[in-house]
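Objective 1b. Sequence-to-structure analysis of Thioredoxin.
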Amino acid sequence: MILLSFLLVLSACGNKAEVGMNEMTLKELKEKLDNEESFLLVTFSASKEDVEKSELVEAFDKSLNKDEQTAFYVNLDEESQDTLDQLGEKYTPSDYKGDVWEPKDDGLVLIADGAVMKNPRETLLSQSLIEGTANGEEGYEGSFFEYMDDINAGIGSALDFAEQNDIELSY
């Protein structure tokens, strides 16, 4: 009985991601990509302060939770452009019909078998968008919660693409 309880505790401590947004490091991202996993990913490059003030993660989290979906996110603010270019080139399939993945700006992407397969245009996340939103600059909303229609549409587009192409998301 004790052994069974111990095994149950161990299985509960696995790497299962939570519904909503799950933060990860660049190293963890590369591992998931190299393991050819399929998942929703949000990447951006902005100061931690701007990310918090803009409520970026919270807005995506709300949208994902509404549909009981899971995504991972990485803030690439500390990474060099060279590192990001290499990442984009390595994980964009040669037969992909879109542009090469730009992790710094592309925001939400669908990863299928370790490669970028869908990049909804509604959820691009440039540094200037995050900064403008965080600082309430003219022409920007005051929070990413005010971009919910775009966030919902981007997530919906990625999930529709996954369903239409029999891509099973793994967490």
